[in-house]
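Shift notes (night). Ran CAMK family protein kinase while the centrifuge was going.
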Amino acid sequence: MGESHAVIAPNRIGDFIFKGTIGEGAFSIVKLVVKEQNGQYYACKIIPRAKLEGSIRTRFELEIRINQQMRHPGVVALIDLFKDDFNYYIIMEFCPNGELFEYIVQHGKLSERECKPLFYQLTSTIQFIHNMNVCHRDLKPENILIDRFGRLKISDFGLSRFMGPNCIVSTSCGSPCYASPECISGKPYNAKTSDVWSLGVIFYAMSSGLLPWTKRNQTELYQQISTGDYKIPNHLSPALADLVRKMLTVDLNKRITIAQILDHDFFKDINKQVVYPPLNVPLVSLKKIDQFFERDKEEQYRKDHPDEFSSSTGDNSFRKQLDQLSEKKHYLIKQRNILYAMKGEHQPKVHEVTEADKQNALKEIHEICNKNKTVNTIKVVDTTNSRKPVPKTSLVNRGHGAKQPTPNKVIVKPGISVGSASRL
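Came back to this:
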């Protein structure tokens, strides 16, 4: 494990016992954990406290607060939060079938019968997110996970923002291959409309095994995106080709909306009254989030040190996001502009995570993942009569924001494969 991934981790946190490392990111590692009380498996993102300072910690809080609101079957659920003197521990829903990205790289395109319910599910989830006045801003197959039943779940709200009525943002973000023309323009843009474009690129990739773009140089890639220079694959049906074309329309005034996508002719034969099974997982409360970020202590600190809370202090843009989020509905606390320095609650028994730990746990993790899979196909419950099998996906979920090195496999077809393009 590299220096950036070195972490001091306990053998357990709360009722959760660590089983092994299943993912790594720039600021974190992801471990498989089991809840001692019921034997249920979850994923735990471990973030060293030293990595989260200043505006990065503020973004982290915003991500957690947004994710907590996204209580939907199509979103990876936030289960619990812990901290100690060394790390923050984020317990997430475990998706043993890994990333949609891995699936496309390994197996190429999906048939339209397979794509249709998945497209509808993803669009419905984005509609829910947008209805909560949140824009994801980093939609890509790496941030879409596959649960044990083959359902797609959106994860990683690290770049997401709570939006005002006009949904206008000024910061370019996300992955180049999935970024909209307006996002890479450097000008303010509508984040909801930009999410539609990103979703269109995902639809294209799932149905063709390729990305729409053929340029590998970033300057040329941006030019291709900005002009909408792509070709619709010949094998797509007229309805799907029309849908993708309308999603990947450069003109914002002509680009299809989320509501129009769900009403498109491509979905005319799908059961739109999908009944998802309940989540059946405990979800973290807002009270626990407030305690996690020590808002109760901060309130008293604000009263005792009013001079430290001037408007010129710190990252106002992200604090404004927390302010907007706190005003939303009735259940979020008031904005606090400065995050109080946290004090660890306890010091656990710790050990240095080594490569040997990962190797020793690998076999057990694979067995757990296989045991937790109940289907070998990617599908949405009760949507179509499609029963065409899809090959098994990879065993381990690397998601929940963790980014591992991109797989080296390249799909040898015209254009850019999903595997190669993601490195741009």
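The radius of gyration is 22 Å. Residues 3-95+279-369 form a domain with the Phosphorylase Kinase; domain 1 fold (CATH 3.30.200.20).
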